[in-house]
Amino acid sequence: QVLDTKDLQVFKVTINGQDAKFGFGEKHSFKGTPLEITLPFELRRGQEAIVEISFESSPKSSALQWFTPEQTSGKKHPFLFSQCQVEWI
Questions:
Q1: Which of 2, 35, 52, 66 has its CA 20 to 30 A from that of 19?
Q2: Does pTM top 0.70 for this prediction?
Q3: How many helices (H) and strands (E) does the chain have?
């Protein structure tokens, strides 16, 4: 699987709770860098996969923005959102 990233540091990827191997492809000047993930198991037709990515953004991560807890409706937790196309998520 390949996801699009830009100026992120990725620490860990899990799929359905299992550690997955990951790496970055060649960086593109304005598109970012592909995050390439190897599934730790064979995915069967109709099987769901929950992908969790532990990462840190940077001030240069232009497409990511945070709402502080005070900016959210519940006022308890921060919220991360992306202004990129759906392929990024």
A1: 66
A2: no
A3: 0, 8
